[in-house]
Amino acid sequence: MTKGSPAKDALAAAYPIMLGYVGIGIPCGILCESVGLDALQVLLLSALFYSGAGQFMIPNMYLTGAPLASIVSSVSFVNTRQMLYSASLAPFCANAPRWMAFLFAATVTDESFGVSIRRFEDGGWTVDRALLVNLFSQSSWAASNVVGVLLGSALALPLSIAAFAMTSIFICLLVTQRLTCANVIAGVSAMVGVFACKAVGLTGPAILIGAVLGVAVALGYIAWRGKGKSPGAREGGEAA
User: CA 59, 62, 66, 69 torsion: positive or negative?
Assistant: First the structure.
């Protein structure tokens, strides 16, 4: 349950994400600077195209000589996972103003989704608080990107560290979820999907395919359990 003001509750929920974004935002800014983007361009990119994975992909693919069409299609494909988040969060936005629901959906990320969905399920969480979590997180990401651009090549930071920082954020979000069979099945299925994709060379869409597989398998498991528990069986179990 929430107890403080919306801004205070949201900041308390968002600060781990904000701290994590510093560790990966600065290297991302350095990478963007290496392909010729200045601080204003990176700030606008972070504000209008809020996607950590996408913002890492764009300069990386550019440096490998990928054509513009390939960059746009690859980044768009990877970010289609946002539709899954919108579908999961839509029931909680039913009574929110349309503009707020739209802005909330437009600013949700992997990390803020993980934080807000649990609080929605626990009860007492509101769309305005969830939106503030997104905006606080986005502000940290954008500021860290700009700092990275300003530091530029003066800071020789291996980008492999950024990859570990991004992975560590997902690990933190995973271990804070409820330990239910559905969540365990979703997590394991997603990991298997990602490893399988990378093993056959599908590195780009690996995260998307893994996420879809995890959600699909978990939903299938929930549906299977629901069918197995008929009303009569539940009544018998309760009577016993």
Answer: positive
User: Distance between CA 174 and CA 177 in Å, rounded?
Assistant: 6
CA distances from 204 to 31, 81, 177, 238 (A): 18, 13, 26, 49
**b/e 171-210 (16+ beta carbons within 10 angstroms → b):** eebeeeeeeeeeeebbeebbeebbeebeeeeeebbbbbbb
pLDDT digits (tens, 9 = 90+) for 75-132: 777 677 777 777 788 888 888 888 888 888 888 887 888 888 888 888 888 888 999 9
Phi-psi region of 108 (alpha: psi -120 to 50; beta: other; left: phi over 0): beta
φ, ψ for residue 165 (rounded to 5)? -65, -40
State pTM to two decimals: 0.64
Copy the structure tokens of residue 25: 């935002």
Q: 């974004």: which residue's tokens?
A: 21
